[in-house]
Amino acid sequence: MRSTRELGLAKPFATRAAQPGHHYLRVSVEFPDGGVRLNAAHFKQLIVSALKELHGEVGAALPVDVLTYDEKTLSAILRVSSSGFVKLWSALTLLGSYQNRKCAFRVVQTSPFLLALSGNSRELVLD
Amino acid sequence: MVRFKHRYLLCEVVAEDPRCRRCIDERAVTTAAKGALARAYGDYGLACCSIAFTGQVKYLNAYTGVVLLRCRKDFYRLLWSALPLVTHLESRGQRHPCFFHTLHVGGTIRSCQKFLIQYNRRQLVMLLNSCTNKEERESIQKSLLGCFLQEAEEEQFQSGEEEDDCAETD
């Protein structure tokens, strides 16, 4: 359990990973107006600009890694250290536009363990 | 106890230009601090430390350049670490390069005031050592004598006064 002060929040937030751990997120970005192509570098820049807007220079310096990126579906797996997990998720949630186009981040799955992202019991289809 | 706890940051505005001191006012200090917070910590940091915006600069001494800032106890570290990023103060269309030197962080205004009194006494002694003019020397010596006499009187009267500003131990 991280103490409330370390996360910079007033309310307690519990993460159950090992202490100096990482959190993994499977995200996808949606552009309702359509027709946007992003390569991996643009995607990373999108994330960093979202962090910079909400959390400033300190947030933009958060070490976020894009582990995989699929250009066709605009989905990716991100890795972030556990102390910055809340900052990243809140910044992605509040990102509204990219280069004057409306966009939205959907966080599909998160886990402190990368192996857990290989299967998704929500989208499991039997038969 | 359900009440909002604050931290008071006692800072000194240090500038090369002696004319800068007269131009500092509450609004310039607030905008400079908020600008630094916005750059360093973004919208989140700006919002955390700007609650009670009107009551943020509690004390401002234009002659010595001492400022007392207030923020919530949970977020005082954000403000404290953003203060060194202030590079200049703007007031009435003039820019004065300066920096903020944090002297003390206290839980109450009274503890900051006590620290400021002791700090000013030490500064007077240092000024006495480094002054060049005979008149300056005499005026500083007079004020030093005045405050040491007052200190001696305080010690006589201090008999079991309880100090109840221990909010820092929270």
UniProtKB/TrEMBL annotation, chain A:
Which Gene3D superfamilies does the UniProt entry name for this protein?
A: Ribonuclease P, Pop5 subunit
Keyword set, alphabetical order = tRNA processing
Q: Name one GO cellular component term.
A: multimeric ribonuclease P complex
Query: What does the record give under GO molecular function?
Result: ribonuclease P RNA binding
GO terms in the biological process aspect are: tRNA 5'-leader removal
Cross-referenced Pfam families, in alphabetical order?
RNase_P_Rpp14
PANTHER family, alphabetically? RIBONUCLEASE P PROTEIN SUBUNIT P14 (PTHR15441:SF1)
Q: Which family does it belong to?
A: Belongs to the eukaryotic/archaeal RNase P protein component 2 family.
Q: What is this protein called?
A: Ribonuclease P protein subunit p14
Automatic annotation (TrEMBL), chain B:
What is the primary gene name for this protein? POP5
Q: What is its main location?
A: nucleus
Which keywords has UniProt assigned to this entry?
Answer: Nucleus, rRNA processing, tRNA processing
Under InterPro entries, the record lists:
Pop5/Rpp14/Rnp2-like, RNase_P/MRP_POP5, Rnp2-like_sf
**Record's SUPFAM superfamilies?**
Rnp2-like
State the protein's name.
Ribonuclease P/MRP protein subunit POP5
Q: Which GO terms describe its cellular component?
A: multimeric ribonuclease P complex; nucleolus
What function does the entry list? Component of ribonuclease P, a protein complex that generates mature tRNA molecules by cleaving their 5'-ends. Also a component of the MRP ribonuclease complex, which cleaves pre-rRNA sequences.
UniProt subunit comment: Component of nuclear RNase P and RNase MRP ribonucleoproteins. RNase P consists of a catalytic RNA moiety and 10 different protein chains; POP1, POP4, POP5, POP7, RPP14, RPP21, RPP25, RPP30, RPP38 and RPP40. Within the RNase P complex, POP1, POP7 and RPP25 form the 'finger' subcomplex, POP5, RPP14, RPP40 and homodimeric RPP30 form the 'palm' subcomplex, and RPP21, POP4 and RPP38 form the 'wrist' subcomplex. All subunits of the RNase P complex interact with the catalytic RNA. Several subunits of RNase P are also part of the RNase MRP complex.
**One Pfam entry name:** RNase_P_Rpp14
Residue ranges that the Swiss-Prot or TrEMBL entry lists as coiled coil: none
Q: Where in the cell is it found?
A: Nucleus, Nucleolus
In which family does this protein belong, per the annotation? Belongs to the eukaryotic/archaeal RNase P protein component 2 family.
Which GO BP annotation is one of this protein's? tRNA 5'-leader removal
Quote one Gene Ontology molecular function term: ribonuclease P RNA binding
PANTHER family linked: POP5 HOMOLOG, RIBONUCLEASE P_MRP SUBUNIT
Q: To which species is this protein native? A: Alligator sinensis
Keyword tRNA processing recorded: yes
